Amino acid sequence: MEGKREKWMVFSAWPYVNSVPHLGNLVGSILSADIAARYLRMRGAEVVFASGSDMHGTPIEVEAIKRGIEPKELAERNHEYVKKLFEKWNISFDNYSKTESPVHIKFVQDFYRKVYDNGYIFDDVVQMLYCPNDKIFLPDRFVVGTCPYCGYEKAHGDQCENCGRLLEPTLLINPRCAICGATPIVKTTRHWFFDLPAFTEKLEKYIEGNKNLPANARNMSLQMVREGLKPRSVTRDNKWGIPAPFPGAEGKTIYVWMEAVLGYVSAVKEYFEKRGTPEKWREFWFDENTKTVYFIGKDNIPFHVIIFPALLMASEEGYVLPWTVASTEYLLFKGLKFSKSKRHGIWIDEALEVFPVDYWRFALTALRPEVRDTNFTWEEFRRVINNELNDAIGNYVHRVLTLAYRRFGQVPEPVEESREAAELSSTISKLVDEAGDAMARFRFKEALAKIVKLAGEGNAYLNRTKPWELDDGAAATVLYGALHLVKALAITLSPIIPGSAQKMWEFLGYSDSVERHLWEEAKEPPPPGQALKEPKPLFRKISEEDIDKAIERIEEIRRAKEASS
RNA sequence: AGCGGGGUGGGGAAGCCAGGUAUCCCGCGGGGCUCAUAGUCCCCCGUGGGGGAUGAGGGACCCCGAGGUCGGUGGUUCAAAUCCACCCCCCGCUACCA
C-alpha cells in the first residue's frame, strides 16, 4: 500500500424509483458495486460508496397524476421503500441519497450556473408535442399511435415495438397521448442546451487515453464522438424536478438525466457533510489519483463515458473523470428479458420473502452475466445453492469446525511437519491471490469460482488426510491447515455473502467483524489456542418443493399487491 | 442499416487479447470414504423449526472414466477454439424513457 492509502469512489447507477428494481437491475449495478466496495475496503483502500434514488421525471409525475397525489409524496414513499430493501440486501452504502436531497438540488443549480457562466449553455426554440388535456409536453415515449411501416396500433413515438423501427412521434398515424388518449398538438417551447460538441476533442483524448475503460465502452464511445456529437437539451417543461437556474428559464426544470448524474458528486459531498467534514469531498473529487468506478447497465455507457465527463469538464473545476465503467450483459429470466409490464421475472422485494439474502447474493454472483447474457432459472438457482454454497462451501466449513471443536475446542497447535499441510497452505495462497486478482478486475463470478475451488481443495485435503483416524498430534497438524482454509473462505467470501462470512468468522473464535480485516490476512492461519464456538450448519439444501412453495408465495405477494393498489 | 457482444462435449460456463496440453460445474458410468447438513425413527414448540437416536451403507465429500470435426467456409503458420477474410444464426445499443 506504499504508505498512502488508495482512494476509491464506487458508484452504481441511480435506480429510478418509479418501480422496485428486479434482480436483473440489481446484479449489474448495485450488487456489483457493493461487492467491489467491500473488496476494496478489505484491500485497505479508503472507499466512498454512494448512490441514491432518481426521483424526478415524467413517469413519476404521470403516475402521481393517475393516483391523484403529489409527485413528491409518491417519490418519497418509493424512495423509503427501496432504501429499506437495499439495507435488507446488505448493501454497504456509505451514503444512499436521493435527487430531492437539498444538498443535491443546490449542487445541481450551482453547477449549471457555473457551466452557463462558462459559456456552454445556450437556448433555442423547439417544437414539441403537447397534450392539451393533461397540459404537459409529451416525451416521444408518451405518444402512441399507428406505426406507418407495419400498421401496429400501439407503437410508441420513439420506436415501434412490433417491427422494431425507430420512429419520430410526428410519423405516427393517429397519434394519441399515452396518458389520456387525447390528440396531442404541436406547440413551441424554449429550451436550454448543453454545448456537447465543444468537448469533442477533449473527449476523444480522454477516451482514447483511458486504457482502464472496457474495450466495448471505449470503442462504442469513440465511434459516437467521431460521428459527431449534438447539443443535449438540459431543460424540460415538467413541474416535477429541479428548477433550472438559467436567466429566462423560470418554470423549467432540469432534465432528469442531466441532473441525476451529478448525484455522483453531490452524494459524496453530502456524505462528508453528515460526517462533519464538509470539505473532505474535495480530497476525493479533485484529486486525479482518486479512482472511480461506475457500475451501470450496458445501455447507458455513452452517458457515463461522454456526457457526464463533458459536464465535469464544462465546470472547469478539475473534477476527476471516470477511471472506468463496469457493465454486465443481461440477466434473463427463463430465457426472456425481465419485463415489468409482463411481470416476467423476480423483484428484489419478493426474492427476500422466499430465500435468505446470502442465497441470492451468492446465486446472483455465480450467475453474473459477465461476458454474455445469462439465464436465471429456478433449477440453476437450486443447483448453485445446493452444490456450491451448501455442499462445497457450507459442508466443508461445518465438517472442519465440527471435527476441531469436538476434539480440541480451540484452534490446535500444529505439532509436526506435514507435507500435505504445507501444500494446502500454498494452495490457499495461490487461490486467494487469484480470487483477489479477479475481484480487482471486477470479475466477481470468476472470483467466486476460485473460492468454490478453494472449498473443493479443502474437501479433497480432508479425504486424503483423514484426520478422524489420526492421533491427537497428527490430527492437530491436519486440522490447523483445514481451519486456515476456513479462515480464508470467511475473508474471501465476505464481499459476496457478508452475513454468512461473519458467522464463519465467529465460529473460528473471532469476536470482531471480518470485513474490517484485510484480504491478505486470508493467507495467515488463525492463532493456535483461540477458542472455537460450537458450529451450526450455515446453509440448507433447497428441495424441489421449496422452489414450488417459493413460486407460489411470490404469486401470493403479487396478488396482494395488486389488490391493495 | 450502422455499431457492440456472443455461437466451445446432452445443459450451463472458462479459455481467445500475448497461436502449440481443450478446462470447470450439472447430468451419465465406475470406485473410495464414513468426520460432517441426506434418509429413517423418537421427542418438543408448532406447520417451520429445535433436540435426540440410528446406520458395513444411501445423500454429501473425494478419486477415476465415457462424451466435443470449439457456428460454417477459406486463408496465414511447422502449428489455430485462439490471428485474418467472407458467410450463417442469436442478443443488445443507436443518445431528449429513465
Structure description:
There is one protein chain. By secondary structure, the protein is an alpha/beta fold. The protein folds into three domains: 7-118 and 200-223 and 253-328, HUPs (Rossmann fold); 121-193, Methionyl-trna Synthetase, domain 2; 349-523, Orthogonal Bundle (Isoleucyl-tRNA Synthetase, Domain 1). The protein has 19 helices and 17 strands. The strands form five sheets. The protein has a five-stranded parallel beta sheet, sandwiched between helices. Strands 5-4-9-10 form a four-stranded antiparallel beta sheet. Strands 7-6-8 form a three-stranded antiparallel beta sheet, with no helix packed on it. α12 (348-354) crosses α19 (544-564). It is elongated, with a radius of gyration of 27 Å. The two termini are 53 Å apart. 46% of the residues are buried. The mean pLDDT is 87. It binds one RNA strand of 98 nucleotides through α3, α7, β10, α8 and α11.
